[in-house]
Amino acid sequence: MATTAADTLRLIGIRLSALAQDGLTYGDSDYDLDRYRQVGRLAAELLSALSGRPATELAVELGRDSGYATPKIDVRGVIFDEAERVLLMREKIDGLWSLPGGWADPGDAPSAAVTREVLEETGYHSSVVRLIACWDRELQGNPPPLPVHVWKLFFLCRRDGAVQPPAALETLDVGWFGLAELPPLSLGRVNHRQIERALAHHRDPSLPTEFD
C-alpha cells in the first residue's frame, strides 16, 4: 500500500505525541516539562489538521496514556465451525460486523484478553489454539487512521463449553458466515483479507505466525 504525504505527516504527529509523553514521564525540570507539553499540543494540532477532528478532543485522547509510550494492543478471536463458517458479531457502535475483540486490558494475558472478549461479545466460551498473526494496523488498511499506533493480534480459537447470551452493551447480533457470504464488515476492526488469512491458518496448522 503506497504511503501518501498525509500518512507520513500523521506518523510524525503520532511520534511527536509519543515523544511528549515520554518527556513528561522522565523530564525533571519545569522548563523541560513545559516544552514537552507544548510538543504534545502541537502533535494534537497536526493530527487535527489532518483528520478534521478538534485538537482538544485529540489532546484528551492522546493524554489518556501515561508512562513510556508504546503501541496499543487490539486482540481478535477467530472461530470457525465444521463448515468453515466464521463467528462474527454485529457492533452496536456502527451496526457493522466484526470478529469479537477489542483493546487488551492491563493485567490480562493475551489469551485471557481474547477469550474474555469472545465470551462478552458473542456468548461463546472458547480457548486459544494459537496466535496466527501480529499485524501493524498501519500496514493492514484498517480505516480510519488513528492518532495512536496499534498492533493487532489475531488468535485462532475453538469453542469450549456452553453458550450464553452476549453482552447487550456492545452486541446487536451474532452469526456464522462463510467466506463468500460475509456481511458488511466494520473495516476498522477487521477486513476481508484478515479473515481470509485466518481461514488459511485454520485449514493448515503448519503455517507460521504472520508478522508485519
* Strand content bin: 25-35%
Instruction: Tell me the domain tally.
Output: 2
N-to-C CA distance: 13 Å
Question: What's the number of helices?
Answer: 5
Largest sheet: 5 strands, mixed
CATH class category label of the largest domain: Alpha Beta
Query: What is the string of SSEs from the N terminus onward?
Result: HHHEEEEHEEEHE
List unreliable stretches of 5+ residues. none
What does this structure look like?
With 212 residues, the protein is an alpha/beta fold. The protein has two domains: 5-62; 72-211, Nucleoside Triphosphate Pyrophosphohydrolase (Alpha-Beta Complex). Helices cover 36% and strands 25% of the residues. It has helices at 5-26, 30-51, 55-62, 110-122, 192-203, and strands at residues 72-78, 86-91, 97-98, 101-103, 124-136, 150-163, 171-177, 210-211. The strands form two sheets. It has a five-stranded mixed β-sheet with strand order 4-1-6-5-8, with helices on both faces. β2 and β3 (97-98) form a beta hairpin. α1 packs antiparallel against α2 and α2 (30-51) packs across α3. The longest helix is centred in the first third of the chain and has 22 residues, at 5-26. 30% of the residues are buried.
